[in-house]
Amino acid sequence: VSTQSTGSSGINAEYDQVIEVCTKGLDVGREQRADYKHVAKSLSRIGKAYLKKGDLDSAMTFYDKAICEHRDPAILKERSEVVKLIKEREDLAFIDPIKSTEEKNKGNEVFKQGKYADAIPFYTNAIKRNPQDHVPYSNRAACYTKLMEFGLAMEDCNKCIELNPTFIKGYLRKAALLKIDKPTEAKGVYEKALELDPNNMEAQQGYQHCVNQMRNLSPEERAKSAMKDPEIQRILQDPAMQIILEQMQKDPTAAQEHLKNPQVAEKFQKLVQSGIVSIR
């Protein structure tokens, strides 16, 4: 331990020496009316020394002084790194799971009163206090949905699912948004929800709603709706599936051989259900 401490102290002493030398150089330079570019470089070196010491505030002070002398791209880039580190430090200091829960609970109370716009800031603060908690994203998505801000609601649903892929409510909220005009894609999300809980009533009803909605579409409308589904897009963009579908089109008997592969059969069935591929 003492060796590490001594090493750290020695390194800091080196940075202190850099600061001292550059400071003296600045005094001499100003007396001799040195070029502003050289002044900026010395100031940035002091800033970098403070950065290495871990003194972000002092580093920012000297980088700011440097760009006042000369907006050198290299100095601006170094300064931006300090800005990023300070932001990370502030965000980390702001994290507090207990206060996050308090903000979330306040949002829930306001939401129950039907004040959806007023609930959003509480959920936003909860997210800032604990960015890894998936629930405030789900709750804020509910607010955005009530306010018909569907794009923002979808972003929060996706983030919620990213943080906790086993949280069924994230899928249910997302599917509810999609079933408005993308029944094929919504059906796929309800399927994922049912994988998590096969007995979930909302997922069952939502899935059936999408199936019924797709039945009422013409073949052209079904295919058009299916093309918006990311899973369908991935299947159609798969080079192997493209070759298989082309072979099936030229030689229908080839389908039997390809469908012996369970993965191919599953993908092919999805294309049939979506209306992309028809069987004659």
Strand content: under 5%
Largest sheet: none
Mean pLDDT: 86
Q: Can you count the beta strands?
A: 0
The radius of gyration computed from the alpha-carbon positions, rounded to a whole number of angstroms, is 30 Å
What is the first-to-last residue Cα distance? 77 Å
Uncertain segments are 1-7
Anisotropy-based shape? elongated
Helix and strand element order? HHHHHHHHHHHHHHHH
Going by helix content, strand content and strand pairing, the class is mainly alpha
Helix content range of the residues, please?
Answer: over 70%
SS field, number of helical segments: 16
Structure, described:
This protein is mostly helical. Helix content is 81%, strand content 0%. The longest helix is centred in the first third of the chain and has 30 residues. The N terminus is likely disordered.
